[in-house]
Design brief:
The protein is α/β, with parallel strands linked by helices and 172 residues long. The protein folds into two domains: 2-124, 2-Layer Sandwich (Nucleotidyltransferase, domain 5), CATH 3.30.420.40; 140-171, no CATH class. The chain contains seven helices and five strands. It has helices at residues 2-19, 67-82, 98-101, 107-115, 125-139, 141-158, 161-171, and strands at 22-31, 37-46, 54-62, 89-94, 120-123. The protein has a five-stranded mixed sheet. Helix 5 (125-139) crosses helix 6.
């Protein structure tokens, strides 16, 4: 029953995405415990009925191909399975991995070639910020100590339901 409802909702969303003013795609990947390399695809779109940006998770896809070709293949699979077009696709957000950003064979270039025009390509701000923090931490070892202390405090409260309740009392 959940599959039927999910399929109907995705069909309805596909129509919304095709009729939107514009949309962009975010693709990120991760290997799970079984070493299956899955790609997670999200769409951000501007619906025609109101000027705002909405986000929709499109699903988890995988490909037998590797690198940028595999990323493009997962996007094509997503297009095919959900039935939306690239007509109003204006952007693509990824992390800074070479398979994404390579000038000649990276996903950014392959996607531009696939849609047949220029699109806005963006390096995810979270990934860029993480790289910047790593760089600062290598120059300032005190930040590494601060980060490990912050993680230790979070772990201290997270691992005990009693401590978590006490923390909520203090905060709220």
């Amino acid at each position: 029953m959940k599959k039927i409802i999910g399929d109907l909702e995705m069909k309805k969303f596909s129509k919304t995405l095709n009729e939107s003013l514009c949309y962009s795609i975010q693709i990120d990947g991760s290997a799970d415990r079984m070493q299956i390399d899955s790609k997670f695809i999200t769409a951000r779109y501007v619906p025609t009925d109101k000027i705002c940006v909405k986000t929709m998770f499109l699903g988890v896809f995988s490909s037998d191909l590797g690198g940028a070709d595999g990323l493009l293949d997962t996007f094509k699979t997503c297009l095919q399975s959900l039935g939306f077009s690239t007509e109003n696709l204006i952007g693509l957000t990824t992390d800074g991995e070479t398979a994404n950003t390579g000038r000649h064979r990276g996903l950014w270039q392959l996607m531009k070639d696939f849609v047949g025009r220029e699109i806005l390509t963006v390096w995810c701000i979270c990934h860029r910020s993480d790289l910047a923090l790593e760089s600062v931490q290598s120059d300032l070892p005190e930040l590494s100590h601060w980060k490990s202390d912050a993680i230790a405090v979070a772990t201290f409260f997270r691992t005990s339901p009693r401590r978590t309740k006490l923390l909520h009392k203090v905060i709220y």
